[in-house]
């Protein structure tokens, strides 16, 4: 599986970008300030594929040029922010993503905490494969030989300081996005209910499942267990009221006594 992944990641074919201009007209590039998401992103963004892009510390000074290249290739930057890894965060993020080369992880963690990074959620049809293509091979020297127009060929130094990180598959993209943008819910595609003809991406469903598993299911399980224990006469109404009273995202207000102010 790993060999197949490397082979696919390093199959850089220029003809994959034929028709980029037509796709770009469907997904106008959007510039964002900080963490903000614009109200209208693109009308048919719901049926696009999503991936995570990360600009590494030494390439951070080129972030504006990199973002311009991303947009020129027809990607929509859905959300972005500047981030500073702690050693614990860097280890957590990269240890499962570098399982093929565990010796590389300590060097990578030390490097990733050396400065700020820019993380972006990108949207485009076949976004994952096309972002891997635009990044280029992991080794910048190889990138310069095989695909000199790639971002790693332009800004990379070595296999650690190779300028860019990108999600390698749909499951990893969903996990990466949730790591940096916990407020993002990538909704399941409703392309079947619209006039838009495009292939929905399964990684939107993966992100949706992750959100449900982390934030919804624990509360539901606790409420259902309490329902079984209490055995109320009107179970539906009781359960609705219990959910309202135990919503983990609602502020917890303690009742207070009214104090009469003397005249």
TrEMBL record:
A GO biological process held by the record? negative regulation of oxidative stress-induced intrinsic apoptotic signaling pathway
- Family in the record: Belongs to the NDK family.
Q: What is this protein called?
A: Nucleoside diphosphate kinase homolog 5-like
Q: Which residues form the Nucleoside diphosphate kinase-like domain?
A: 48-188
Name the CDD domains for this protein. DD_NDKH5-like
State any GO CC term. cilium
Pfam families linked:
Dpy-30, NDK
Q: Superkingdom of the source?
A: Eukaryota
Instruction: Look up the signal peptide feature and give its range.
Output: none
